[in-house]
Amino acid sequence: MSLSTYLMFNGSCRQAFEFYRTVFNSDFQVIQTFADAPPDMNVPDEDKDNIMHVSLPIGSSILMGSDTCSSFGPPATIGDNFSISYSPESKEDCNNIFEKLSHGGEVTMPLQDTFWGSYFGSLKDQFGVQWMLNFDTQQN
Q1: Of 50, 52, 64, 74, which has fewest CB within 10 angstroms of its CB?
Q2: Separation CA 122–CA 102 (nearest Å)
Q3: Where are the beta strands (DSSP E) in the chain?
Q4: What is the rounded distance in angstroms from the CA atom of residue 22 to the CA atom of residue 45?
Q5: Which of 21, 42, 41, 44 is nearest to 31 (CA)?
Q6: Domains of the chain, with CATH numbers?
Q7: Would you state the pLDDT for residue 33?
């Protein structure tokens, strides 16, 4: 189980994470563009070079990020362009924590199996904090 910070950008994710990579003298664990997404996601051409997901280890933590995609929702708002990412130890734990966190809040993406091999969902809790829950089904 782990907690990580997930940052959202409006087209500057690559630039920001290249900066963070040099600051923390680390290498990307994963870096994917929206061009790497399955065709059925119908990513607009203007978004294909933007970052879909990047992971940068920093000490015992992982800093993650993405650009927004015009067809998936509104642009990021600077100041609240982050989420807390929780990686539980089991699918059952994922369901339990998601249900508790979403009480009185708003589910933005229901828990579901994803093309990247995880059981994933996102929500905004009753205090306005954005959460991502990501159980890696490939390692368990």
Answers
A1: 74
A2: 9
A3: 2-9, 30-33, 51-58, 61-67, 82-87, 106-113, 118-124, 130-136
A4: 29
A5: 21
A6: 2-136 (3.10.180.10)
A7: 97
Structure tokens at 111: 């828990």
CA 107, CA 94: separation in Å to the nearest integer?
A: 14
Q: Which residue in this structure is represented by tokens 């369901």? A: 95
Question: Which pLDDT score is estimated for 112?
Answer: 97
Q: Provide the 10 A C-beta neighbour count for residue 118.
A: 18
**pLDDT at residue number 72:** 83
The secondary structure element, H or E, covering residue 61 is strand 61-67
Query: pLDDT digits over 103-125, tens only?
Result: 999 999 999 999 999 999 999 99
How many whole angstroms separate alpha carbon 20 and alpha carbon 124? 26
Is the pTM for the entire model greater than 0.90?
no
The pair of structure tokens assigned to 108 is: 């933005």
| DSSP secondary structure code for residue 114 in this structure | -
Q: What is the DSSP letter of 38?
A: -
Candidates 81, 85, 55, 84; CA nearest to 68 is 81
